[in-house]
Design a protein that fits this description.
The chain is an alpha/beta fold and about 210 residues long. It has a single domain (about 1-205), classed as TIM Barrel (Alpha-Beta Barrel), CATH 3.20.20.70. An 8-stranded parallel beta barrel has the order 1-2-3-4-5-6-7-8, surrounded by 8 helices. Helix content is about 50%, strand content about 20%. Bound molecules: erythose-4-phosphate. Erythose-4-phosphate binds near residues 24, 29 and 122.
Length: about 210
């Protein structure tokens, strides 16, 4: 399972670079954390950075694709008016633009998005869980569905806890995109800390 960083902070991308295989952003993250997309893309290059198209999806997606060589454009399957972006995604893929179909909550949406040949489908575990949905089942069903698909990988997003990450691994998700505070929690362990302190103390007492 690969890890992506769900952040637009330059210092966090630099910090976690050794353990991540890509970066994901969205407009809410950019609003909250700031960050310059071109700068972030240059740091992570040649690995992918997902940037979300908004407003006029077709124009916005082509803008990012023309500006950033390693961009994967996030396009939601649904529009704000409840229509679908199927035609937009189809056209962008025909133009050679890689798509991360985002804000997905169900296997049925993943089945549709995958027919279009998107590079990633992003399933939002935390938001499914928020409403009492069984995100582990959704992830595991999506993984089964994508089993022999060589085009599309599943990204689990909207990760709120380390438990969400471990559940994603158990469901055999291909990628989990994780915020810096969750990554931080993943490396911490009181017993590890006690152990390294014990060995450091012993080392000090060794006669050289
Ligand atoms: C993933 O690609 C999204 O950027 C993100 O994980 C959404 O998470 P949220 O539910 O915390 O907004």
């Amino acid at each position: 399972m690969k890890l992506f960083l769900d952040s637009s902070k330059v210092e966090e991308v630099e910090r976690w670079l050794p353990v991540i295989s890509g970066v994901t952003t969205n407009p809410a993250i950019l609003k909250r954390e700031g960050g310059d997309i071109k700068e972030l893309a240059a740091i992570i290059n040649p690995l992918p950075i997902s940037v979300e198209a908004c407003g006029d999806f077709l124009t916005d997606a082509q803008y990012y694709a023309g500006m950033i060589p390693n961009v994967v454009v996030k396009v939601p399957l649904l529009t704000t008016s409840g229509g679908s972006n199927i035609d937009v995604i189809y056209e962008l893929i025909n133009k050679g633009i890689e798509i991360n179909c985002t804000a997905l909550m169900s296997l049925s949406q993943v089945i549709i998005a995958t027919q279009l040949g998107v590079r990633y489908v992003s399933v939002f575990a935390g938001r499914i869980d928020d409403e009492g949905g069984d995100y582990k089942k959704v992830i595991s069903d999506c993984v089964d569905f994508l089993d022999d698909d060589e085009t599309t990988e599943l990204i689990v997003g909207s990760v709120r806890t380390v438990g969400n990450v471990l559940d994603s691994f158990r469901a055999k998700a291909h990628i989990v995109t994780i915020t810096p505070p969750i990554l931080e929690k993943m490396i911490k362990h009181e017993n590890s800390l006690r152990t390294v302190r014990e060995f450091e103390e012993a080392h000090k007492q060794l006669s050289k």
